[in-house]
């Protein structure tokens, strides 16, 4: 084989590896399919209010964030998913050794416009960055392989770190608005439609720049439920209306009976000559 042919094959292999590594950087293959629990909306503040039973309606799912697809273990994270009438919510928790924690730690959720895990389909991203215990939320969109801030932010996110028994425990909460087919499209956001399937990539890193700052990640699929109304207690306005109807019905019956008795009395008096 000629040297020129060997050189050409080597260049082709190198280019292929570079392309493959760029895809792996975000994909990591979908390893979990989630059907959300329909429940109460949590407050997105980075804390779980046990007194209000926040997130209690959903069970934790375990997934591993990996630096590449060949990593045998990965960073274990626990996540919950809840849907209400208008939004989709994600809770993600994991822990790191204190010496592993950097000045900035971020978690981002990349959203695909389908169930395809190709990088170009992850056109939307919600990021929470924690720096000096303070968190910030960013809504981003993909523009020529670089994520930029949206002109108008949608959704919400929050994060918190606490130290416990020599470890840093991270809690991240995200909220994604849901839409119907009739909703007008937004060029900067993926419309998460009711009764649809979408792929989400959970990414972690300590340099809040996407995609360069991604350290590890994993992909999940979420099957968004149909739009439905939450069963709730009786509406106070309806109760008041029913009570008013009952009261006035009794008043009307009493008044009718009173008039009827007057008519009978008058007829009786006429018969006896009054």
Secondary-structure topology with pairs:
Layout: H1 3-24, E1 30-34, E2 37-38, E3 61-65, E4 75-83, E5 87-97, E6 104-111, E7 124-131, E8 134-143, E9 146-149, E10 156-164, E11 167-179, E12 192-193, E13 197-205, E14 216-223, H2 236-271
Parallel strand pairs: 1-14, 2-4, 11-12
Antiparallel strand pairs: 3-4, 4-5, 5-11, 6-7, 6-13, 7-8, 8-9, 10-11, 13-14
Structure explained in plain terms:
This protein is of the alpha+beta class and 274 residues long. The chain has one domain: Immunoglobulin-like (Sandwich), CATH 2.60.40. It is 21% helix and 38% strand. It contains two helices and 14 strands, in the order αββββββββββββββα. The chain has helices at 3-24, 236-271, and strands spanning 30-34, 37-38, 61-65, 75-83, 87-97, 104-111, 124-131, 134-143, 146-149, 156-164, 167-179, 192-193, 197-205, 216-223. It has a seven-stranded mixed beta sheet, with no helix packed on it. Strands 2, 3, 4, 5, 10, 11 and 12 form a seven-stranded mixed beta sheet that branches. A hairpin with a 3-residue loop joins strand 4 (75-83) and strand 5 (87-97). The protein is elongated and about 110 Å long. The N and C termini lie far apart (136 Å). The model is unreliable at 11-27 (pLDDT under 50).
């Amino acid at each position: 084989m000629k040297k020129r042919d060997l050189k050409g094959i080597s260049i082709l292999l190198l280019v292929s590896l570079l392309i493959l590594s760029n895809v792996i950087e975000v994909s990591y293959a979908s390893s979990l399919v989630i059907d959300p629990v329909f429940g109460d909306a949590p407050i997105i503040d980075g804390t779980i209010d046990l007194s209000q039973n926040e997130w209690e309606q959903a069970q934790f799912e375990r997934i591993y964030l990996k630096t590449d697809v060949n990593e045998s273990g990965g960073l274990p994270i626990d996540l919950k998913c809840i849907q209400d009438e208008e939004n989709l919510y994600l809770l993600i928790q994991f822990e790191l050794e204190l010496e592993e924690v950097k000045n900035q730690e971020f978690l981002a959720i990349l959203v695909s416009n389908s169930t395809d895990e190709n990088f170009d389909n992850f056109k939307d991203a919600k990021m929470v960055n924690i720096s000096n215990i303070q968190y910030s939320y960013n809504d981003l969109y993909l523009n020529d392989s670089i994520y930029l801030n949206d002109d108008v932010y949608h959704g919400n996110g929050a994060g918190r770190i606490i130290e416990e028994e020599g470890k840093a425990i991270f809690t991240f909460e995200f909220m994604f608005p849901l839409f119907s087919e009739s909703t007008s499209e937004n060029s900067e956001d993926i419309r998460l439609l009711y009764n649809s399937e979408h792929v989400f990539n959970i990414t972690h890193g300590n340099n809040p720049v996407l995609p360069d700052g991604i350290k590890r990640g994993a992909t999940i699929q979420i099957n968004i439920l149909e739009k439905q109304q939450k069963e709730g207690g009786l509406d106070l306005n309806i109760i008041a209306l029913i009570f008013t109807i009952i009261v006035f019905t009794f008043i009307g019956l009493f008044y009718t009976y009173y008039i009827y008795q007057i008519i009978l009395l008058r007829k009786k008096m006429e018969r006896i000559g009054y």
